[in-house]
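For the sake of clarity, the format in which proteins appear in this thesis is described at this point. The record quoted next illustrates the convention:

___
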Amino acid sequence: MDKTITIQGIASGISTFYTQAKCCHAFTLTAGDKSYKVYARDIDCEWDLNDGEHFTVSGIVITDEMVVATSVDRWGRICDVCGKWHTEGYYVGEDEYACSEECAIKLYGGNELAFRLDLSLLDNEETADAAVTYWTEWE
């Protein structure tokens, strides 16, 4: 009997193939000391898949080491300034990510005042919806 699973890990060995005219991906997801061979349809992947990225995979366990994914999403983000992988940090404006306040200010061209002003929008109920920069956690 098949069971469902959700795992978080680091992707490696990503390859793309086509079956019945549908784009699919195969990769290894390493979670701690266990590795899974994951097969996923392109339409079930929320992001482009790249080796070394952290993903959350939900799917059906076929064997102890094989999973057919029903959903693949990033777990964390890569800092657009320093390249560090992080699971909490700043979302800045138009899909930019910063792992720290220092990196977020760099995304503002070094203008700390502009960064602080954008963050202050969150503190006011009337302007919170206009905020383009905020601290968050990615799970």
